[in-house]
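Bumping with the actual sequence this time:
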Amino acid sequence: MGMPATKRWTAEEVRAMQDEDRAWPRYELIDGELLVTPAPTWSHQEAVMHLWRELDHYLRGHPVGRPVVSPADIELEPGTVLQPDVFVVPTEDVRPHGTWRDVRSLLLAIEVLSPSSARYDRVVKRRFFQRKGVPEYWIVDPHSRTVERWRLTDDRPEVLDSSMSWHPAGVAEPLVLDLETFFARVHREA
């Protein structure tokens, strides 16, 4: 949930609040607004794990980027601190011995929806990712078994429930996700 908008937070203040030994609560900062997220649910983490696996498998054969899961403090512009649940860093920004601040762009950002984060995922973060030129932003909803796909110029998401594809620039064939199978795995039905 967001903190009251009366205080404009800085990235330094957010980093000072974080405990390096704990991943939760998660602190993020967009346009001075502090977003605090509690620990995720089991289905949330299952979705994150399965998304990362699918992306990792695909990107090993099409090495245009690396999939990563949070916690990871991404600073796509000064004064921001973001931790997308899953994201793909372009190969040229991958610096295994660098810091998260070395990441200057993303090929894909994914948030797995939680009741406490729905407004921020759909409005605040979505607008930020579109503004920063992230080609695709997915909001994965384990409860409704849908994915909202946002592209750069979209005013409304494409809502998908059976299958979807991701086709990053420079790759001949897309990643195709069977969403019914994906959500069955998330809910341990398959």
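The tokens above came from a reply further down the thread. The chain has a mean pLDDT of 87.
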